[in-house]
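Lecture notes, unit on protein representations.

Consider one protein chain, 117 amino acids long.
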Amino acid sequence: IDMNDGCLWENSDLSRPYRDETREYIRICLGLTSDEDRSRTRSTNATIYAFEGIGTAIRDAYNYEQIRRFMDHMEDFLEMSRLEQVLRLQGTLPSVEEFWSYRLGTSAVHIMLAVNE
């Protein structure tokens, strides 16, 4: 999505299913879904599937509140990356307010703080 030579760079409609699959797969890896959903633990996308090791480590080391907080930050990251893409595709320079509305979310600082908690 953020690589200018990738197929999702110019198309927010194509990137939506990618973000949705990413969000769902992270939930599965973190154990935040039903047992039935957890039986589908493999993503067909290698980039998304690479999260499995990270998700397993977080699930095994953290309590439910920490895992939920991490997931909240991941969801925020995905939403802010969507907003950033939409604003970029508009072809105009964002205002300072627009920039800050998504930049703090796309920087992944909150995700890293949750991991290092």
